[in-house]
Amino acid sequence: MPFIKALGYNIFDPSEVVPEFTADIVGKKGEKVDYAIMSKGNPIILIECKSINDNLDTEKHAQLFRYFMGTEARFGILTNGIIYRFFTDIEKPNTMDSKPFFEFNCIE
């Protein structure tokens, strides 16, 4: 949440930041992304948070990929609190890219 706040969003305003946002896809109900940053009632950024000990491997990436397809968001962030990976749909519209366009590590 401090990262979301640092981006300039009001973490206490549910019209801006929605925790446990429902991102259902066809055939799979109850899918929830950890945070959705909203604009005009629609998600614009999805944030999937993992444990600090988690490796942000393809399984974790696949989870964010599913959420991305189930919403109108065009940016996704996958993080374990140390590494932050930023994704969008440059390669194919409405489909999250397989590689992040930006990544940073808070420790290195």
TrEMBL record:
It comes from the Archaea. One of its GO terms (biological process) is DNA restriction-modification system. InterPro entries: Restrct_endonuc_type1_HsdR_N. Residues 17-94 form the Restriction endonuclease type I HsdR N-terminal domain. One of its GO terms (molecular function) is DNA binding. This is Type I restriction enzyme HsdR N-terminal domain-containing protein. It comes from Methanobacterium spitsbergense.
